[in-house]
C-alpha cells in the first residue's frame, strides 16, 4: 500500500493506493492492535484548514444523491462484515462523494479516521463497491466535517465551518459510547490467571474498574506473547463499559511518535497536547519504542506529568522493566517506575494447561463434535513453553486439521501435525524449568536456589542454573538476574564465567551439565 498527500485547490486530499483483495492478507484480519481514539485534535485542526466543496450545481446534486444511494447499499453489508463497533466508529462517519478514475472518494471528518480506514478497511470497502458493480482501485479522502457539506454544497464561510468542526468532533467523541473496536477475545473473562500473571491481572482489574487511582502508572511488562496486549484491551473494555462518558486513549508508542511528528510538521502541536492531556485514561503499548527518540521522549514526559498531576490514570506496557530499557531518559525511567511495575512472568506448566483447557472450550463451539484424546493438552503444555501465542496457534491448527479429516485429536496426530512447532519449541526452555531441574538434580530446594544462601552446596548449582539459562534461553543477563531473586546482571555474568571455567577442568561438572541439558531439551 502506498499513501500520499496532495493539496488540491479545494482542500486537503489524502490519497491511498491499495492492493486489491488477494494481493496480501485481509485488511480486517490484521486489525489486532486497536486504537480507541476519542479526540478533538485531528478534527479541529485539519477540518478548519481544509473544509471546502467539491463543486456546485445541479449535476453535483444528482451525483451526491447517487453516491448516497450507493454508499447506503454498501454500508449494510460492511457493518455485517466489520462488526457494529468498527462500523460505527470508523465507517459510519464517512460519506461517499464520488466514484471516478478508479477512485472511491470520501469525505472524512478527520485525517486520523481516514488513515485508519485506509489501513484497516479499504479492501473491505473496495470489495463491497465492486460487488455492487462500482469498481475502484483506491480510496481517496477529502478531510472535512462530514455533516457540514455534501458534494453539492458551496464552500462555507469560516465561522460556519468551525461550528461544523465541533459537530464532527462530537460525532467522533460520541462514537466512544458505542464501544471500542477492541479485540473481542481480549477480555478479563478470557484471561486465565496463574502465579506468573496474578499481580498483573489484579492490577489491571483495579485500573479497569476506574476507581480512585492508587498506583500511577500501571506498568505491565514481560516477554513476547505473555498477555500484555490482552490485559491492555481488557482494561480499556472494562473501563469504557463502566465509564461510557470518559475519554480513553489507547495507542502504541509508535503511533504516539507518528502523531507527534505529524503535529510538528503541521504546526498543530497545541492540538496534539490538548488531545493527549484531556483524556481520563491513557494507555500506551510498547513504550520501549520511543527509546532513543529524543523529542518524542520529551513530549511523552510532559504528557505523562500533566496527566499524573491531574490524577488521570496511565497504563504502559513494554517488553522489559523501565530500568532495563536502553536509550530511555533517566527521568522517564524514574517516572515510569513510580507506580506499580507488574511483570508477566514466563508461563508455568499449570498456567499453560489452564490456558489450553480454556481455549479448548472456546474451540469446541467453533468445531462442534470434535473430540480430544486424554493427554494431548498435557503433552502440549509440557512441550510448548515459549509463549501463549504459539500455544494458541498450535491448538488452533490441531482443531482445524482434525476437523478437516474428521477424526479425534490424538497424541499421534498432534505430533504429526505440529512437527515444526514442536521442533522449534524444543530449542526453547524457560528459566523456571532450568531452575526446577537443577534444584531437583542437586536435591536442594528451589527457594534456596533462587534465594540469598551462599553455602557452596547451593551457590554452585545456582551458578549452573545461571549458566544454563544463558545457554538455553535468549533472555538477557538482567532478565536472568531478575528471575534469580533480583540479582544484578554482573552477578549472573560472574556465575556464567565461573561455570565455563570450571567445566573445562572438572569432568564431573561437565557431565552434570550435559545431562541437565539433555533432560531440559528432551
Ligand atoms: N493468561 C492468558 N489467558 C488467556 N490467553 C492468554 C493469556 N496470556 C496470553 N494469552 C493469549 O496469547 C496471545 C498473545 O497475547 P498478547 O498479544 O497479549 O501478548 P503480548 O504480551 O502483548 O505479546 P507481544 O509482546 O508480542 O505484543 C493472545 O491471543 C492472548 O489472548
TrEMBL record:
Q: Which PROSITE patterns match?
A: DNAA
Q: Where is this region: Domain IV, binds dsDNA?
A: 403-522
Q: What residues does ATP bind to?
A: 225, 227-229
Matching SMART domains, A to Z? Answer: AAA (SM00382), Bac_DnaA_C (SM00760)
Q: Which SUPFAM superfamilies match?
A: P-loop containing nucleoside triphosphate hydrolases, TrpR-like
Any one GO biological process: regulation of DNA replication
Q: Where is the AAA+ ATPase domain?
A: 214-344
Q: Which part of the chain is the Chromosomal replication initiator DnaA C-terminal domain?
A: 430-499
Q: So what family is this one in?
A: Belongs to the DnaA family.
Q: Which PANTHER family match?
A: CHROMOSOMAL REPLICATION INITIATOR PROTEIN DNAA (PTHR30050)
- Job of this protein: Plays an essential role in the initiation and regulation of chromosomal replication. ATP-DnaA binds to the origin of replication (oriC) to initiate formation of the DNA replication initiation complex once per cell cycle. Binds the DnaA box (a 9 base pair repeat at the origin) and separates the double-stranded (ds)DNA. Forms a right-handed helical filament on oriC DNA; dsDNA binds to the exterior of the filament while single-stranded (ss)DNA is stabiized in the filament's interior.
Protein name per its UniProtKB record? Chromosomal replication initiator protein DnaA
Q: Which organism is it from?
A: Paracoccus tegillarcae
Instruction: Please spell out the taxonomic lineage of the organism that makes this protein.
Output: Bacteria, Pseudomonadati, Pseudomonadota, Alphaproteobacteria, Rhodobacterales
Q: Which gene encodes it?
A: dnaA
Amino acid at each position: 500500500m502506498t499513501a500520499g498527500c496532495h493539496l488540491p485547490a479545494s482542500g486537503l486530499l489524502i490519497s491511498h493506493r491499495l492492493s486489491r483483495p488477494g494481493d496480501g492478507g485481509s485488511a480486517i484480519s490484521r486489525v489486532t492492535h486497536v486504537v480507541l481514539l476519542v479526540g478533538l485534535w485531528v478534527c479541529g485542526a485539519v477540518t478548519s484548514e481544509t473544509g471546502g466543496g467539491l463543486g456546485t450545481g445541479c449535476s453535483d446534486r444528482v451525483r451526491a444523491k447517487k453516491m448516497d444511494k450507493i454508499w447506503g447499499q454498501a454500508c449494510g453489508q460492511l457493518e455485517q462484515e466489520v462488526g457494529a463497533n468498527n462500523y460505527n466508529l470508523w465507517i459510519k462517519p464517512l460519506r461517499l462523494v464520488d466514484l471516478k478514475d478508479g477512485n472511491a472518494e470520501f469525505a472524512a471528518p478527520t485525517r486520523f479516521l481516514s488513515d485508519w480506514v485506509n489501513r484497516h478497511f479499504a479492501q473491505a470497502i473496495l470489495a463491497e463497491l465492486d460487488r455492487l458493480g462500482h469498481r475502484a482501485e483506491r480510496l481517496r479522502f477529502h478531510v472535512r466535517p462530514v455533516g457540514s457539506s455534501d458534494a453539492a454544497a458551496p464552500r462555507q464561510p469560516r465561522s460556519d465551518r468551525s461550528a461544523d468542526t465541533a459537530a464532527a468532533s462530537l460525532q467522533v467523541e460520541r462514537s466512544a459510547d458505542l464501544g471500542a473496536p477492541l479485540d473481542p477475545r481480549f477480555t478479563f473473562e478470557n484471561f486465565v490467571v496463574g502465579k506468573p500473571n496474578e499481580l498483573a491481572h489484579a492490577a489491571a482489574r483495579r485500573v479497569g474498574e476506574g476507581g480512585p487511582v492508587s498506583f500511577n502508572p500501571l506498568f505491565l511488562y514481560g516477554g513476547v506473547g505473555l498477555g500484555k496486549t490482552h490485559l491492555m484491551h481488557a482494561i480499556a473494555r472494562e473501563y469504557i463499559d463502566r465509564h461510557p462518558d470518559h475519554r480513553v486513549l489507547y495507542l502504541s508508542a509508535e503511533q504516539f511518535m507518528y502523531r507527534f511528528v505529524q503535529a510538528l510538521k503541521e504546526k498543530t502541536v497545541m492540538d496534539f497536547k490538548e488531545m493527549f492531556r484531556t483524556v481520563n485514561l491513557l494507555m500506551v503499548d510498547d513504550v520501549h519504542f520511543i527509546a532513543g527518540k529524543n523529542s518524542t521522549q520529551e513530549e511523552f514526559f510532559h504528557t505523562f506529568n500533566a496527566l499524573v498531576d491531574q490524577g488521570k490514570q496511565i497504563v504502559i506496557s513494554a517488553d522489559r522493566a523501565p530500568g532495563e530499557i536502553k536509550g530511555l531518559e533517566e527521568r522517564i525511567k524514574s517516572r515510569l517506575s513510580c507506580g506499580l511495575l507488574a511483570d508477566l512472568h514466563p508461563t508455568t506448566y499449570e498456567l499453560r494447561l489452564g490456558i489450553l483447557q480454556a481455549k479448548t472450550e472456546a474451540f469446541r463451539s467453533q468445531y462442534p463434535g470434535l473430540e480430544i484424546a486424554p493427554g494431548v493438552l498435557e503433552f502440549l503444555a509440557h512441550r510448548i513453553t515459549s509463549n501463549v501465542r504459539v500455544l494458541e496457534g498450535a491448538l488452533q491448527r490441531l482443531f482445524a486439521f482434525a476437523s478437516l479429516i474428521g477424526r479425534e485429536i490424538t497424541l499421534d496426530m498432534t505430533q504429526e501435525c505440529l512437527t515444526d512447532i514442536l521442533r522449534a519449541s524444543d530449542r526453547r526452555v524457560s528459566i523456571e524449568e532450568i531452575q526446577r531441574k537443577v534444584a531437583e538434580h542437586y536435591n536442594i530446594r528451589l527457594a534456596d536456589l533462587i534465594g540469598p544462601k551462599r553455602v557452596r552446596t547451593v551457590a554452585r548449582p545456582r551458578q549452573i542454573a545461571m549458566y544454563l539459562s544463558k545457554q538455553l534461553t535468549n533472555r538477557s543477563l538482567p532478565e536472568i538476574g531478575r528471575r534469580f531473586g533480583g540479582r544484578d546482571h554482573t552477578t549472573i555474568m560472574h556465575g556464567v564465567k565461573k561455570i565455563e571455567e570450571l567445566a573445562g577442568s572438572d569432568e564431573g561438572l561437565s557431565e552434570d551439565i550435559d545431562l541437565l541439558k539433555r533432560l531440559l531439551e528432551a
